[in-house]
From TrEMBL:
Cited SMART domains: HELICc
Domain Helicase C-terminal, first and last residues per copy: 1-138
Record PROSITE patterns: HELICASE_CTER
GO molecular function terms noted in the UniProt entry: helicase activity
Protein name: Helicase-related protein
Domain of life assignment: Bacteria
Length: 354
């Protein structure tokens, strides 16, 4: 988050902000990134589009607009999205969250109604819920699993953590498995993606998420290291040439290329119009080429439509550039370069299951 965007958020939503109160935004759409440590009490309504397995996160969200110190509204409104009747039996997010909220009410004496006005889950219902198999109701998030694994390694096998810090940017290893797989994790710039590939008739590359990668590569501490197989190098080179695909069927590279092409054209088309943001355009080009921090939606904004040398096309593209500059900040690339200066531009970890 740039300083400029943080300033706008404070100016728009924080009633205790010492600077000028502003009205840039009417609606703030956010992940749980802002659920802790932000005053958003100039907003009197919160909509939970999802209900997390842990309802304390919902309480944290509500706490952003329900701040002690400055009263802005007589009433605060909370709206919650729940699955339809058809999906409720499968997802059960409302039932799970309400029973967990019962624990919070009783343990902490919390008397606010978070999910609805009739929020009175019973002890008997809670007992039956807790006696069910936990796997039916929820699961640890991937990041929690990884943190737990890392904490266990740090505590019981600190020598492994020390060894990891000395590994080169490209690591290749092999372990035993019931079926052959080559799993590759790549970090290019600040973007991260994973693939798995089989051998012989099943040699097509499949994109996988980090959770699936974790299942494929994990093994006991005492698992012996095997030699790389004869299949490894051809398949490894194939994964390196592979470009991730988006759901709409276009590759990441082609989308990035179109964005860079439009940015380069804008430098040419705007040369005679005394445009003041050439340095920022160059920063966007450098980011797309080397750091890959812009999400797909941003790349679409820059490369979704071919830039043409006419007033309307240029005006719309300039508006996009100014939007990016406002939300990313003038110096956003310098921050990225500073945080990445001691990191390799590309890291590849390959684990062959033999």
């Amino acid at each position: 988050m740039s300083k400029e965007l943080a300033r706008h958020l404070n100016g728009d939503f924080n009633a205790q902000y010492k600077g000028t109160q502003t009205d840039h935004f009417k609606i703030l759409l956010t992940s749980d990134k802002l659920s802790e440590g932000f005053n958003l009490n100039r907003a009197g309504l919160i909509i939970n589009y999802d209900i997390p397995w842990n309802p304390t996160r919902v309480i944290q969200r509500v706490g952003r607009i329900n701040r002690i110190g400055v009263k802005v509204f007589d009433n605060l409104y909370i709206y919650n999205f729940f699955p339809s009747i058809k999906g409720a039996d499968i997802v059960k997010s409302r039932e799970i969250a309400q029973q967990k909220m019962f624990l919070i009410h009783n343990a902490l004496g919390e008397d606010a109604k978070i999910f609805d006005a009739d929020e009175e889950p019973t002890a008997s219902a809670l007992r039956s819920k807790l006696n069910k198999n936990i796997e039916e109701d929820g699961e640890l998030s991937t990041i929690t699993k990884i943190r737990n694994l890392y904490a266990d390694l740090e505590k019981n096998h600190s020598e492994i953590i020390a060894k990891i810090t000395d590994l080169p940017p490209r690591v290749k290893t092999a372990k035993g498995s019931e079926e052959y797989q080559l799993n590759v994790l790549r970090r290019k710039g600040l973007s991260l993606f994973a693939q798995t590939i089989g051998k012989e008739g099943n040699s097509s590359i499949k994109e996988i998420d980090f959770e699936e990668l974790l299942v494929n590569v994990q093994c006991p501490i005492e698992e012996p290291t095997l030699k790389l197989s004869s299949f490894f190098w051809p398949l490894y080179e194939e994964t390196k040439r592979f470009q991730p695909k988006y759901k709409f069927g276009r590759s990441e590279t082609s989308l990035e290329e179109r964005a860079v092409d439009n940015l380069k054209k804008s430098l040419k088309f705007l040369r005679d119009l005394k445009f003041e943001n050439f340095d920022f355009i160059q920063a966007l080009i450098k980011d797309i080429r080397y750091y890959h921090t812009l999400p797909t939606a941003s790349l679409r904004r820059l490369g979704g439509v071919e830039l043409k040398d006419d007033k309307k096309s240029l005006r719309l593209f300039v508006e996009e550039i100014l939007w990016f500059k406002k939300h990313l900040g003038d110096d956003y690339l310098k921050k990225i370069e500073f945080s990445s200066k001691n990191k390799s531009k590309e890291i590849i970890i390959a684990v062959e299951n033999i």
